[in-house]
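Support request, please re-run this one:
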Amino acid sequence: MAKKRVAVVGTGQTMHKSHRPDVNGQELIHEAVKTALADAELTINDIDAIVIGNMDHFEGINYVDCWSVDGSGGWMKPIIKLTTGGTTGSTLAIGGYHMVASGLFEKVLIIGWEKNSESDTTGAITTAFDPIWDRLVFAGAIAGLAAEGMAYMTEFGITDKDAARVSVRDRKHACNNPYAQLRQEVTLEEVLASPMLSDPIHLLDVCPRTDGACAVIMASEDVAQKICPTPAWVWGTANRHTYTYVGDLNLGEIDSMKYAAAELWKKTGITEPRKQIDVIELYQPYSFAGIIWIEAMGIIPRGKGAEYIWSGATDMGGELPINPSGGVIACNPIGATGLIRCAEACTQIMGKGGARQVPDVNLAVSTGFGGCFWTDILLYGKQKPDF
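Re-run finished. Output below.
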């Protein structure tokens, strides 16, 4: 059976907050599902299958595919659960894409969610690592990210002020996004004066812990244009979940992003990503990633990321806007985060971004990040791919 082309035809998010005591997991999931179905003008009866996931290791509650059925609408429907650490949301998007591209289903509902207020993120991450080789030095997410930032600083001579410029950008963008948890501009001075968490990372350099959910509906080419006037076509996907031990990492140069992006550009005919891509939704949990990771994607040469950020090229109105939504620095319900990047990139293709809309978006990228610096990446287009 030939692979079918696939498009995103509807998206939905909750209003993301640090704590949602007003809803349980089922209710939180339902908020996103209801919004996505309304966006696509579908009902749950139109959905053929469901792909769902979260960081169940964080909450210590397993089998979300089973207990969430009243929220997901999955009663008597095929359901698959996926979880791949921090990349869970983007893995869900990739999994949903293949479910439709294979011809197995015509319309798939993809759901990512997290209630970080009811979990221990640092404890979960720490205990996920090898107790002999990694655990003592990889105390949660911050330490590993700090090691990457410090390695890059040492090699290229940038400072924490260069990274702070990324945080200033994303927090400003988030003010245009009604779904973002944090919607307040900050100055360079405020970022640098915020508490040092792990040198060189300050408090305002990093993302929050968020309660939230996101849902995306993907449909085959046979029905997508009947559902949505401007579908966001999935041009391709790639991923690299390649590392096991922290000691394997090439700190300061994220190899998984470099190899995944290179594969995706080759598969989709992208030869000059900086000029051909119109917007990027980057899973960027801390500010230094906004410099290091765009280099790994091939957007800008190694060592030139900070210069590119300072030029304003990645701001709204710049050459290549990054994170018009405010990105992960403004909102991070981990199991949903990569799927939010998918939803936001597709929102740009569909022209539904409102105050955060980038004009004339034809190609958009979303990424996912997690684990031992794993990477997922997806490319979307306004035009149906001819491959």
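The two ends are 15 Å apart (CA to CA). DSSP finds 15 helices and eleven strands in the chain.
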